[in-house]
## 1
Amino acid sequence: MQKIRKGDEVIVIAGKDKGRRGVVQQRVGRDRVVVAGINVVKKHVRPNPLKGVAGGIVSKEMPIHISNVMLYNPKTQKGERVGIKTLEDGRKVRFFKRTGELVDA
């Protein structure tokens, strides 16, 4: 089970965007995520008339390592560590380690 999933709100804890929040748009491999508005770079794109690409300089969000983000807890207004536990009915759920409350509830 993944501790950080697509659609989660995360806070960046290291790097040039430290302290900023965003929503995970996708997972890239096992250990990287693309977060909306985070790690934005300028990319030079060559025009391709067959694909309809105009070309020029495009802003693009690049993947960030999963160790540099934490799941954001709206109640405490901080990033918190996440654990996984199994409930009595056999379901696996994520929970915040500091408060013990469920993430997926």
## 2
Amino acid sequence: MAKIRRNDEVVVTAGKDKGKRGKVMRVLDSGRVIVSGVNMIKRHTKANPQMGTAGGIQEKEASLDISNIALVNPATGKADRVGYKILEDNTKVRVFRSNGEVVGG
């Protein structure tokens, strides 16, 4: 079970985009994540008329290391650490370390 999953609301804790918030779009196997609207890069592409793609400069999100982001606790609105808890019915859930609430989503 991963501590950070797709569609989680996260905040960047280190780097040039420190403090920015966004949703996790993808979690890569290499321990990196892509967050919407964060770590934008410019990609210069050549036009390909056969595929119908236009040339120019495209902006897209680059990946961030998973250690440089943290989940946002909706109760406090701040970054929070995540732990695990096993409920009475033997299901493993993610919980916020500060208040012990179950992570929604």
## 3
Amino acid sequence: MYKVILHKNAAKYYRNADEKLRGRITTAIDTILEDPYYHVHIKKLEGELKDLYRYRLGNLKDSL
């Protein structure tokens, strides 16, 4: 089983998001929990962060 931990800034962003965006984020977290290493939106990072992955949710600038 995997665990997702949000940075305090990400948690604040989630709390302040509207219902539609919170749903998108929740869906992304559920996807990560199923398999955090493979999905079309998951990419392994490089360089100093080579042991980490990122999940691209899309453009969030206009969401809040």
